[in-house]
Amino acid sequence: MQSAMKILIAPDSFKGCLPAREVAAVLGAAVRERCPDWEVVELPLADGGEGTLDVLVAALRGEIRTAQVSDPLGRPVRARFGLAGGTAIVEVAEACGLQLLRPEERDPLRATTRGVGELLLAARAAGATHFLVGLGGTATCDGGSGMLQVQGLREALKDCKIELLSDVENPLVGPTGAARVFAPQKGASPEAVALLERRLEAQADALCALAGRDVRRLPGAGAAGGLGAAFLACFDAVCVPGIDRVLAAVGFADRLAGADLVVTGEGRSDSQTLQGKVPYGVLRHAGSVPVVLLSGRIADRDALAAAGFARLVQASPDDLPTAAAIQAKTAAENLRRSILSIIP
């Protein structure tokens, strides 16, 4: 066994399986059991998508509030937001996320972002003047039209600072826009995608008329089914890489100091990981400290290795069906086994 080391465990959530906090806890417990004299630092992360609310509320020492809002189909639902002084942390998926719908209900032609506007109003009423808005995991593709229908929203937020946290830079429309890239993941057929593209073009025109700004080609405008476009046009919001903002908030540089090894990961890693996801953000900010990528599934290994990860470790055996792999107990055991395989 090696002499005492410091290991920083900084994972994203394993989507649909374990939140980042539990992933870090499982890995940390395994390391401590094997190497009780090691310093183990658990630092759960997010990039603007799933888990951002919990990570930032903890980092900013805030509290969770709830409000009744409309879900993607207009039904009442309790949605969470964070409040830390005058800063609100809002995950738009709390109001319009895919997780709020059964698979057979998913239809971006019908889904609305109205609940996002209602959630923002609730946070503003609670005293927020600065908003950290996580864009990701939505069931919608309405370009923010539903959000903007909430009465009084623009007036309420006119003097507020809004930061959009996202891991994508897609424009609103076009080949890499919200409809063509993301709508199929939300249940849209090819015919629906074509209709959604036309709707987003019309929404871009409407936003330009409303706010005097053409945002259809701006990076990040296509995030969260085009919600980014509405925020950019009407609220003078700024897009920031979600992982960079989260790393700053959690004090990553301070937690990294003196570390001999960093372990990061997510549910599935592939070439998309290198486009703003948590593991790549950790790698970019880790400096000379070696970073191990430990994820549930790993594809595009050559690209990930070339990016600079010291080692790639897949937690789930190749022959284990995904349905079994994402069971919490199975995933935790696979994580435990995998982290122990990299410790001398």
Describe the structure.
- This protein has 344 residues and is of the alpha/beta class.
- The protein has two domains: 6-45 and 251-341, Glycerate kinase, domain 1 (Rossmann fold, 3-Layer(aba) Sandwich), CATH 3.40.50.10350; 52-243, Glycerate kinase, domain 2, CATH 3.90.1510.
- Helices cover 38% and strands 18% of the residues.
- The protein has helices at residues 20-34, 52-59, 93-96, 114-125, 145-148, 153-156, 178-182, 190-211, 223-234, 242-249, 252-256, 278-285, 301-307, 322-325, 328-341, and strands spanning 6-9, 39-42, 63-70, 76-84, 87-91, 130-134, 161-166, 238-241, 261-264, 268-269, 291-295, 297-298, 311-314.
- The strands form three sheets. A six-stranded mixed β-sheet has the order 3-4-5-6-7-8, sandwiched between helices. The protein has a five-stranded parallel β-sheet with strand order 2-1-9-11-13, with helices on both faces.
- The model has no long low-confidence stretch (mean pLDDT 96).
Question: Which helices and strands occur, and which strands form pairs?
Answer:
Layout: E1 6-9, H1 20-34, E2 39-42, H2 52-59, E3 63-70, E4 76-84, E5 87-91, H3 93-96, H4 114-125, E6 130-134, H5 145-148, H6 153-156, E7 161-166, H7 178-182, H8 190-211, H9 223-234, E8 238-241, H10 242-249, H11 252-256, E9 261-264, E10 268-269, H12 278-285, E11 291-295, E12 297-298, H13 301-307, E13 311-314, H14 322-325, H15 328-341
Parallel strand pairs: 1-2, 1-9, 5-6, 6-7, 7-8, 9-11, 10-12, 11-13
Antiparallel strand pairs: 3-4, 4-5
Helix pairs in contact: 1-15, 8-9
